[in-house]
Write a structure and sequence with these properties.
By secondary structure, this protein is of the alpha+beta class. It has two domains: 195 residues, Jelly Rolls; 96 residues, no CATH class. 18% of the residues lie in helices and 27% in strands. The chain has four helices and 17 strands. Strands 1, 3, 4, 6, 11, 12, 13 and 16 form an eight-stranded antiparallel sheet that branches. A seven-stranded antiparallel sheet has the order 2-5-15-7-8-9-10, with no helix packed on it. The longest helix is centred in the last third of the chain and has 37 residues.
Length: 392
């Protein structure tokens, strides 16, 4: 058992962790929030392992039983030493998904993994992904899971699909946040939608390899320990990432014409108890749709305020529009937290549609409002006429 001092200074996180008979990544103090010149001890963070969201040896909570915390999908093989998402064979895909939705505000996920196979460099594939998404247990084309996902994906891509690499060396780790409207571009290795990334030579190594994902105060940090030196190295650090609570953690992998063994040794999720100032609490509102600050959503324009004013009336007149409104507002909204103003819409599920479909919905909704206004005017005039006759 390893016990680290939980005391912290501002912008630093040190954690209390328990290791269960397996290799552990190093504890690392991270300067996540410091502005220049800040040295005072103010933020204090404690970290606790959440077993209901963690996967580790001997994998007793994995399988189809009613008491299991993790579900298996596809060609997954569970052994006493690892969970193999795919074997080193062509056209395989597998996934492991947590059954319990995560409602933590701040968290840290440590992934112990191994990628190995007989293929030489750039003759192996395709990679694996770590997910925090609204939907779970769905096969798809993005490293074994569905495209147009809603949430966060962190990808370990081991095969370059794009002919011109633009000085990018593979394997490559990247992250993507999607609201369901974005498509992962395989032909360009996800470059158009990635938040950032780094090269990570993770194949066929004799030592342990680790991936670290931290989400604190709407800041997404990914780090790696792949050199066997027991130290974390930066991969990407993105502020202004807005992830809803209540999504699911999972991991998936896929092989195509080329293949690899994709093994997960452990997934350990830690709850981070982060102190916030009153000012930080005031601005840290609940999030309902994944987004990233300064990242414009597809179709965003200034018509949001017009639509947000008139469409709730339409929702009251006909329930059909209620299921369509979240997508319409999402497509038109310049503000990532617009659904805060429409909490009654959060549980509804909307699917992607074309711009023409959106135009038709808006057109007929406005037409319906005009028609309702005309009817009300006619009724009012008749009522006034009857009142005058009754008076005389």
């Amino acid at each position: 058992m390893e016990l680290n001092n939980p005391s912290r200074c501002r912008g630093e996180i040190q954690s209390t962790r328990r290791t269960l008979g397996e290799s552990s990544p190093p504890a690392r103090s991270l300067d996540l929030w410091n502005s220049p010149g800040e040295t005072a001890c103010a933020d204090q963070t404690e970290e606790y392992l959440k077993r209901e969201h963690s996967l580790s040896k001997p994998y007793q909570g994995v399988g189809s039983s009613s008491s299991s915390l993790w579900d298996l999908l596809g060609n997954v093989l569970v052994t006493p030493q690892y969970v193999r998402l795919t074997p080193d064979l062509q056209s395989k895909q597998g996934a492991v998904w947590n059954r319990v939705p995560c409602y933590l505000r701040d968290w840290e996920l440590q992934v112990h993994f191994k990628i190995h196979g007989q293929g030489k460099k750039n003759l192996n594939g395709d990679g694996f992904a770590i997910w925090y998404t609204k939907d779970r247990m769905q096969h798809g084309s993005v490293f074994g899971s569905k495209d147009n996902f809603i949430g966060l994906g962190v990808f370990v891509d081991t095969y370059p699909n794009e002919e011109k690499q633009h000085e990018r060396v593979f394997p490559y780790i990247s992250a993507m946040v999607s609201n369901g409207s974005l498509i992962y571009d395989h032909s360009r290795d996800g470059r158009p939608t990635e938040l950032g990334g780094c090269t990570a030579m993770v194949r066929n190594l004799d030592h342990d390899t680790f991936l670290f994902i931290r989400y604190v105060k709407r800041r997404l940090t990914v780090m790696i320990d792949i050199e066997g030196k027991q130290e974390w190295k930066d991969c990407l650090d993105v502020p202004g990432v807005r992830l809803p609570r209540g999504y699911y953690f999972g991991t998936s992998a896929v092989t195509g014409d080329l293949s690899d063994n994709h093994d997960v040794i452990s997934l350990k999720l830690y709850q981070l108890s982060v102190e916030r100032s009153p000012a930080e609490e005031a601005v840290d509102k609940e999030v309902f749709i994944p987004s990233v600050d300064n990242m414009k959503l597809p179709g965003g324009n200034e018509n949001f305020y017009f639509i947000s004013t008139f469409f709730p009336i339409c929702c009251g007149l006909t329930g059909h529009f209620k299921s369509l409104l979240p997508l319409i507002l999402l497509s038109l909204s310049p503000h990532p937290d617009f659904l805060l103003y429409f909490p009654f819409l959060v549980d509804d599920h909307s699917e992607s549609m074309s711009g023409f479909a959106l135009f038709l919905i808006i057109f007929f909704s406005i037409l319906g409002l005009v028609f309702a206004g005309v009817i009300l005017l006619i009724v009012y005039n008749k009522w006034q006429e009857r009142s005058r006759k009754h008076f005389y």
